[in-house]
Amino acid sequence: MSLKIPFGKYYLTEKIATGGMAELYRAKRIGVAGFEKLLVIKKILPHLSLHEEFVSMFINEAKIAAQLTHTNIAQIFDLGKIEDSYYIAMEYVWGKDLKAVLKKGKEKKLPVSMEHALQIVGKACAALDYAHKKKDLKGHELNLIHRDVSPQNIIVAYEGDVKIVDFGIAKAASKTSDTRTGVLKGKIAYMSPEQAWGRPIDRRSDIFSLGIVLYELLTGEMLFKGDTDLNTLEKVRDAKVIPPTRINKEIPKEIENILLKALAKEPQERYQSASEMQNDLEAYIHANKTMPGTLNLQNYMHTLFKEEMEAEAKALEEEDTIVTAHLEKTMAAPIGGEKKPAAKAVSKRPPAKKEEENLSAEQAGRVSKKREGSPIKYIILVLLIFFAGSVFIIKPELLLPAKKALSDYLKPSEPATTSQMQAEN
Questions:
Q1: Cα(173)–Cα(21) distance, rounded to whole angstroms?
Q2: Is 175 exposed, middle or buried (0-12, 13-18, 19+ CB in 10 A)?
Q3: What burial letters (b/e) apply to 96-115, b meaning 16+ CB within 10 Å?
Q4: Helix and strand tally (H, E) in the chain?
Q5: Does 408 qualify as catalytic in the annotation?
């Protein structure tokens, strides 16, 4: 159901989801002359806004994440507080998260192909590598770690783009007292072993998590799944990996080797950077000519989510109508730059002279208009004079013909000769 809730400089138009940490809304920012921007507002839940350590870390991590500008990372535009609500305004990606893609693929019996899986994970590698190596203005690495690389945080746009969302937010979430029961519920299965043990982590933890995502895309099954969260946590800590070819025999040996390296239990045995994993994936793709391209992924998304796309497009139109109508009622100037009737101006001119008093209203208007004149023509005249003077100063030779003509004109005429007089007679 569409909403029309003013939220600072934004309008919340649709509640997308509620998690253990925040509420997500589709929103619009309205500017001058009908300017509009569609985005997502992530509102931190009220009880977490009272948690000082969480709020402090949330703000610090969001500030760092806002510096990330990469084609495969959903950008953060704004961080603020309205009343007691802290929020992030971030890029709206029209598409579905990878969890929804996997689910819909099973329902329609159109699972994610190996080509698409490699393409999606390759782009996620590029995003992670950029973030991991991001430096501040002084050239120091920010050491930014995602901490929550999972299908829920990888968005596939309907047009074929791939975006990672929620950089750094999991670090703040880990400081809340309800981490296991709320914030990270459902995400334990995508942790690295060292993260599951509560040990210090670095960028290689994200690589392990991305390996779990690739494993699920290629096999259709979760790598670590227990009957309970505690059982799942134990499986993650043990990090025993069933070779993917036992589940899907069509997986090439080269891809299995990439997976097993990314999923090595010890960090030093894994890829040491996301770019290394990306290079191996791309080497296989180019060697085997399996790159499907963005258009191919777009077609796959359109096939899976045709009905959803139509419904969402209709909802967006309705939201636009509702927000526009609401603004026209509440704002001083309507959207689109339409002019409102001008208020009557108070005349500060002196009273008209006696000779104008008997003129008709039409005549008085003409006289007044003639008096005021247009300042533009005077400005143009001054500019022309200035321009002409400048030309003659720069090139004085241009004045010679005029000077000669003036001299001839002022020169006294000579008396006519007799022959001339006779000829005239």
A1: 7
A2: middle
A3: bbbbbbbebbeeeeebbbbb
A4: 17, 9
A5: no
- Non-local (6+) Cβ contacts of 184 within 8 A are 20, 148, 170, 173, 174
Q: Please, what's the b/e burial string for 386-395 (b: 16 or more CB within 10 A of its CB; e: otherwise)?
A: eeeeeeeeee
pLDDT tops 90 at residue 365: no
Q: Please give the order of strands across the beta sheet that includes 85-91.
A: 5-7, 10-18, 22-30, 36-44, 85-91, 76-82
DSSP letter at 149 equals -
Q: Tell me which amino acid residue 191 is.
A: M
With both helix axes pointing from N to C terminus, report the angle between 203-219 and 114-132 in degrees, rounded to the nearest 10.
170
pLDDT digits (tens, 9 = 90+) for 234-273: 999 999 999 999 999 999 999 999 999 999 999 999 999 9
Average pLDDT over residues 338-344: 45
Q: Which amino acid is at 393?
A: I
**Catalytic one of 84, 129, 136, 148:** 148
| pTM for the structure as a whole | 0.72
Tokens of 291: 């790159």
Sheet of 95-97, strands arranged across: 95-97, 154-157, 162-164
The 10 Å Cβ neighbour count of residue 70 is 17
Residues in CB range of 337: below 8 A, 6 or more apart: 32, 33, 34
